[in-house]
Design a protein that fits this description.
Beta-Lactamase, five-stranded antiparallel sheet, about 55% helix, Rhopdopsin 7-helix transmembrane proteins, Helix Hairpins, alpha+beta, single chain
């Protein structure tokens, strides 16, 4: 098959021109991952086409043959560069080492040497001037040439396998890019086959270059081949702990990372996200949906927070523009801020605690200090040292207040290492630490729970002391002791609770919500911190406490949400 030589020359010229233009475009983005080896491959193709074109237009047969040998520089450059590009593009850039480059350089050096020197006619059996050929010469290929062909096609097949393997594991956003890229890589090899099989009498590879150039142009302009690095995205996006959603201009989800998929399963039960409308995903989350509407309408970066399943999340929405400034979609970054919120809440609690301490110093301590100061002045004026006994009592009260304030500060720290403890054994130990001459203790039942033993004992001590101190005011001749009872509250197989009840005067219903506040007391000499410390210790364990009336008309303090340890011994 011998086509008109003029058409073949035009084909060579067009292929050379298009490849040079494409190479210039890629070179402008040479700082991007994989761009340099891609440029090397395109430059090799341009050299190949240019060598064929020049050999077809010169009239000197010897110059045509020289150019025919010379274009092999482009052939081997193209083969080696496309291999390096495939390694970088598919995430195997760690293999692009000096050793790899040196190994890939063996083939180009050997082929160029054989093409020019051809010792023992190992590369060409013959290469002679032929005015009837488009290039002005004809060749008879030898074993060295066919080894070169086998190697080149082997590299092309290797590149194709890498690209198609990436196609298999790639997400929807990059599949179009990868399909086009694979076709661009295979086009020159496919176009070269008719020449190798002697179906035609001229080199048809530039036809593949034209097709490849068109496909590379499509990949760059339509699928942003140079702007996006899929494997870099996989390396970063798949390992980041934050949930990431990529949404296109048609409001469809085009990419997600594993964290985003896991979050979506919890919010909407969705497992397949890519291709879905973003509104389907955000409908169960009003705050996030409102954020999406705002960014679509304004095009400005937006952030908001929302709670979910007992945790807190921060969601940030930004627009995505390509390197040419064109809007292509939106990016949503969802971050779990539960730890940060807890720290903020702890800081808030600490600040409130500091305010309480300031109140104690300015009020609760100032009052007895003024009283003591007055008795000292009275003793100094009258010379009656008996007034100092009142000063001593006032100082004892100040010491009790300071001790309780310090306890509030210590007991508020979160419990991080609870151990299995028996409620009965801790209650009995706590009872021994309290002045219980006017009280009796009855333990109804026992349970093993997870707690800080010392702080649990402090909690029970305060409850026992509170019952006795308030119960003393109700003692009569017939009633000489305050009866205190400790029992358990059954909640579930994993959680339990306990209570401390007495038969004292009880707590007025209107005051049930106030008894755990710092400074609240009905006892004349009370500090008002006893039940506040109880609440601090309960909060530090993650428990809930409440006050109600006991079966015997007294006060009953209930502690709920306690982790049961039914498998442990007391």
């Amino acid at each position: 098959m011998v086509p008109d030589a003029a058409y073949v020359k035009v084909l060579y010229a067009v292929s050379t021109s298009l490849t040079v233009v494409l190479g210039w475009v890629v070179w402008k983005h040479r700082e991007k991952s994989g761009a340099v080896p891609l440029f090397g491959s395109i430059a090799g193709a341009a050299w190949w086409s240019a060598g064929l074109f020049l050999s077809s237009v010169v009239s000197d047969p010897d110059l045509s043959i020289l150019l025919g040998r010379f274009y092999f520089v482009g052939v081997v450059t193209m083969v080696a560069s496309i291999a390096l590009f495939a390694l970088e593009y598919t995430g195997r850039e760690h293999l692009v080492t000096r050793r790899t480059v040196a190994l890939l350089s063996i083939h180009p050096v050997a082929v160029v040497f054989l093409a020019f020197v051809n010792p023992g006619n190992v590369f060409y059996a013959s290469i002679v001037a032929d005015p009837s050929a488009v290039t002005g010469f004809s060749v008879e290929r030898a074993i060295g040439f066919w080894i070169h062909v086998a190697y080149s096609y082997g590299v092309t097949l290797f590149v194709a396998v890498l690209v198609f393997e990436m196609l298999y594991r790639s997400r929807a956003l990059y599949r179009g890019q990868i399909v086009v890229l694979a076709a661009a890589v295979l086009s020159p090899a496919a176009a070269n086959l008719p020449t190798l099989l002697n179906v035609v009498s001229f080199d048809t590879t530039p036809i593949g270059f034209v097709a490849s150039n068109a496909l590379f142009t499509l990949a760059i302009t339509r699928y942003r081949l140079i702007d996006l690095a899929p494997i870099a995205r996989d390396r970063v996006l798949d390992t980041v702990e934050d949930a990431v959603y990529v949404v296109d201009r048609d409001h469809r989800i085009v990419d997600v990372n594993p964290s985003a998929r896991e979050l979506a399963e919890r919010t909407s039960g969705a497992d397949e996200l890519v291709g879905r409308d973003i509104s389907d995903l955000l409908s169960p989350l009003p705050e996030a949906y409102e954020l999406y509407r705002d960014i679509v309408e304004t095009g400005e970066e937006q952030t908001t927070e929302f709670p979910l399943d007992g945790r807190h999340y921060d969601i940030e929405a930004t627009t995505i523009d390509d390197s040419r400034g064109s809007h292509v979609g939106w990016l949503f970054l969802v971050r779990d801020i539960t730890v940060r919120k807890r720290r903020e809440q702890e800081l808030k609690r600490r600040n409130e605690q500091l305010n309480e301490f300031a109140s104690v110093v300015s009020h609760d301590l100032r009052n007895p200090l003024n009283v003591a100061d007055g008795y000292v002045d009275l003793a100094r004026t009258t010379g009656d040292v008996s007034h100092l006994e009142e000063v001593d009592a006032t100082l004892d009260r100040m010491e009790a207040i300071i001790d309780d304030v310090l306890a509030l500060a210590r007991e508020g720290e979160g419990v991080t290492d609870p151990t299995p403890v028996g409620l009965q054994s801790v209650a009995e130990a706590a009872w021994g630490n309290v002045d219980t001459a006017d009280g009796t203790l009855r333990i109804v039942d026992d349970v093993t729970i997870s707690a800080d033993r010392d702080r649990l004992a402090r909690l029970l001590e305060n409850l026992f002391r509170n019952s006795i101190e308030h119960g003393l005011s109700d003692l009569s001749d017939e009633k000489q002791f305050v009866g205190i009872e400790v029992g358990t509250l059954g909640e579930s197989s994993r959680t339990t609770g306990f209570y401390v009840a007495d038969d004292g005067p009880g707590i007025p219903e209107s005051k049930l919500d106030q008894v755990f506040e710092s400074g609240y007391t009905t006892a004349e000499d009370g500090t008002g911190f006893g039940l506040a410390i109880v609440k601090q210790i309960a909060d530090a364990h993650g428990w809930n406490c409440s006050a109600t009336e006991s079966d015997r008309g007294g006060a009953r303090i209930e502690i709920r949400g306690v982790t049961a340890r039914l498998d442990e011994q007391n």
